[in-house]
Amino acid sequence: MEDMHFMFSTDEEVELKKYFVVICYDICDNKKRGKLVKYLEKFAVRVQKSVFEGYLTKKNFTKLKNGIAGYISDEDSLRIYKLTGNGDVLSWGKGDILENEDYIII
């Protein structure tokens, strides 16, 4: 099986002001988990059953954070990692690779 490899830059000084985020969760209740997944799909791409990745503007990052409380209870767990600087991701098996959005203005 071939490994997939990509690099990303999440330098906060980038003109587009986007953050690379990794969201992972552990929700016991199927109904609550389904609602959370629909919410997260508005912001990021599912890369594993309980892991999402996305490039978010500051505004969308704030929206994401503010809305999470409505989906999580004391017995659940959710983490959002906001990564800055340069990074390197290695991936094996199936799953989408989230590509950094590059823009060309003509």
Q: How would you describe what is shown here?
A:
It is built from two helices and six strands; from the N terminus they run ββαββαββ. Strand 3 (45-48) and strand 4 form a beta hairpin. It is 21% helix and 37% strand. It has one domain: Alpha-Beta Plaits (2-Layer Sandwich), CATH 3.30.70. It is an alpha+beta fold. The strands form two sheets. A four-stranded antiparallel sheet has the order 3-4-2-5. A two-stranded antiparallel ribbon has the order 1-6.
Task: Give the structure's gist in a few sentences.
With 106 residues, the chain is of the alpha+beta class. The chain has helices at residues 30-40, 58-68; strands at 4-9, 18-26, 45-48, 51-57, 77-83, 86-91. The protein has a 4-stranded antiparallel beta sheet with strand order 3-4-2-5. It has a two-stranded antiparallel sheet with strand order 1-6.
Defining traits:
106 residues; Alpha-Beta Plaits; 4-stranded antiparallel β-sheet; two-stranded antiparallel sheet
Topology readout:
Blueprint: E1 4-9, E2 18-26, H1 30-40, E3 45-48, E4 51-57, H2 58-68, E5 77-83, E6 86-91
Antiparallel strand pairs: 1-6, 2-4, 2-5, 3-4
Poorly predicted sequence stretches spanning 5 or more consecutive residues: none
- What is the CATH T-level topology? Alpha-Beta Plaits
Summarize the biggest pleated sheet.
Answer: 4 strands, antiparallel
Structural class: alpha+beta
Please tell me the CATH architecture by its name: 2-Layer Sandwich
Q: What's the helical proportion of residues? A: 10-25%
What overall form do the CA principal axes indicate? globular
Distance between termini?
40 Å
